[in-house]
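hey m, so remember when u said the tokens were messed up on ur end? i reran from scratch. heres the input so u can diff it against urs
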Amino acid sequence: MLHIIKTRLLIFILLICTTLSNQVLGQENENYSAFDFGRMWTFEDAPLEYFNSTYNLSWDQEWMDKLRQSALRFSTFCSASFVSERGLIMTNHHCSRSVVTDLQQEGEDFDRDGFYARGLMDERKAEGLFVDQLIRAQDVTQKMKALIEEKGQEEAEKALMAAYKEEDSWSDLRLQLVTYYSGGRYAMYGYKRFSDIRLVLIPENSLAFFGGDADNFTYPRYNLDFTFWRAYDDEGNPLNTSAHYFPFNPDGIAEGNPVFVIGNPGRTERYRTMTQLEYDRDVRIPAVLTFIRSSVEVLKAEYEETGDPHIQNRIFSLDNARKAYTGILEGLNNEKYMARKQAAEEDIRSKTASDFTSDNNPWDKLNSIYAKLGNMGAYSTLLNPSPYRGKITGFIHKVYDYMDEETADSTRSKLEAEINEQLPDVFEGQSKYLQALIDDYSKFSSFQSVSADEILTSTFFNNPKKTASWLKSKGKKYDKDPLIQLTKTLMSDYHRNVEFNQKYQAEISQANEKISFAAFKVLGDQLPPDATFTLRISDGVVKPYNYNGTVSPIYTTYFGLYNRYYSHQMEFPWDLPSKWLNPSMDLLRSPLNFVSTNDIIGGNSGSAIINAKGEAVGLIFDGNIESLPGNFIFDETRNRAVSVHAGGIVASLKHIYRADRILKELGL
């Protein structure tokens, strides 16, 4: 459960849609499928005829526009949607958890007790929180490419943004130029932002994250992972959303029903070549996991000392990421998946071989670049000045930049002020962060690990006079100092990797663009682009799957939640609050979570899942463990998206929270 990193997959479903050029959408090959590249369709290029013919619908563009404007981007990390005529917003608890901490008043603990605003006046505004509604989306590929040819990339982007800001229908919107297929296509998006967002209801953490990390990315599942917020207008009244919202339907699904996820998937990498995937398997993902594991260890030690809930939120996020990236790595080591990627690459290469010469073959170009990269690609992950690395990592970045002979005097003066400001407190409690940095770097280099305690104890930065002398020399004195030597070693590798990326990024993008269009030529031009945290619609069906020698149910019930509560001796993370301990039979038999074959990933957290009538039948919050390789390949054999059932939300409102005003607002 995480807004930064969920991974999901799906495989091929045979369909014929002859109106989409001369190619067949979902074209089949005996060894791979076009749907290996996913089913995250953009709204400006959604395959309506495919939807209608596959699911016996009669959708048109007007209907798609209504769906698009009912969905929201929740801040910079999740999805959400309007679910009433009065601006009621639905998203996940795990999207809201870090936001609501600052809304607690003295004596309150939302993690322990949850929160419900009994009236409009009790709804609490979250300062800085916003949602974005996509009002307009337009393909601008031809305009952008013409401008690039005339002005170059950077100036072309500025020119196109300026031109759209002058158009009346776009002038009052927040504009975003979206790049697809590494520059193969472009779209202009116009958002309306709502910044008065108030908390209406959030469940207790023990319900929303029932089972904790142990149950994360599993199914059957028992999580009440939802939150209700409300958007207000400029006059301080609930926003009128009567034209665009998803009506709530607690009984709107059955096995085999088509369902659609509308949200903002964060990132997929399904067009990467075998060379890139093998690099991910051998270097990039292991480096990410190394970073995550050491960071969690340090943060857990700090949380034990402080009990700071913000640190606990970071631990939750990193634990979620660890499990997700572990699943991706297992997928990259899966011979079946890699064979399918290999078959797709070989087929596309062979059928487009005449399009390229030996000098401009994009696969050969990428092979050459990645052969030079080696373990260096790990350093940008392991050595970056992340907040998970404490203050010390950012400090040594500043020290390195200060010593750099190419640093401008004006920049050096600024760095000097920042270094002086951080000293001497910058070393306090930072030994464990520095040790993690050293140890992680040592795993991907020939550097022998050293003691962070000894370095921080013996460095001249503890002596104000020597520090002043070093600054006066522009970083040239005391070059034998252990912290200076460590900084030179680590940061020179970090910057070497940065420079490598800067040198080759354009060539990599150009090669990736050519490969995308080669895939279009072979498989048809309706292949969806990789996720970019922009609005998509993903189609699927409610469907069980085989696991552990049995068959999953399509949905779980509250009976199952209480069974796990008692089976695990009522202990964390399967504990329950006291107000949940006398359930009615109506609550017990209510559905709680369900599964479907939709293609989702991190960023989709908080997305509504709707039926063919456009009704909200659930809320995406996770995927099963089999979905994790979805970062690079989409396979619906056992991959499932996991949602909170709308009936489970309604049951909690009715039987536990007594949220009658919300039930009435939802029309229930």
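this time it looks ok to me. Residues 274-497 form one domain. if urs says something different then somethings off w ur setup not the seq
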